[in-house]
Backbone:
């Protein structure tokens, strides 16, 4: 439980602060390219494959977003969590519902 809480707090901090910090290297891959909240999901550096539940670190945001698995997520934060759980196999497809 403590490990899960620590990971969630770290991830939420990353999601909230990362859009403010400019990317040092590589192209920007913001999810979604437009919208109220945009995140750059660190799926290559964070492994959440052990996480079995569904977590929403941004419950206040209702911004439908479609993943490459043809699932509509309530917001980019949930898609990021699912991407981390799948080790990057699930990514952003387009804004809005699938």
Residues:
């Amino acid at each position: 439980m403590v490990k899960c809480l620590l990971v969630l707090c770290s991830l939420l901090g990353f999601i909230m602060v990362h859009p403010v910090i400019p990317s040092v290297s590589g192209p920007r891959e913001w999810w979604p390219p437009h919208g109220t909240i945009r995140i750059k999901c660190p799926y290559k550096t964070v492994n959440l494959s052990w996480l079995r539940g569904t977590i929403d670190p941004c419950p206040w945001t209702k911004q439908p977003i479609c993943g490459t698995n043809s699932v509509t997520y309530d917001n980019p934060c949930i898609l990021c969590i699912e991407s981390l759980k799948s080790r990057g196999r699930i990514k952003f497809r387009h804004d809005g519902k699938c």
User: Anything to note?
Assistant: Residues 17-26 have pLDDT under 50 and may be disordered.
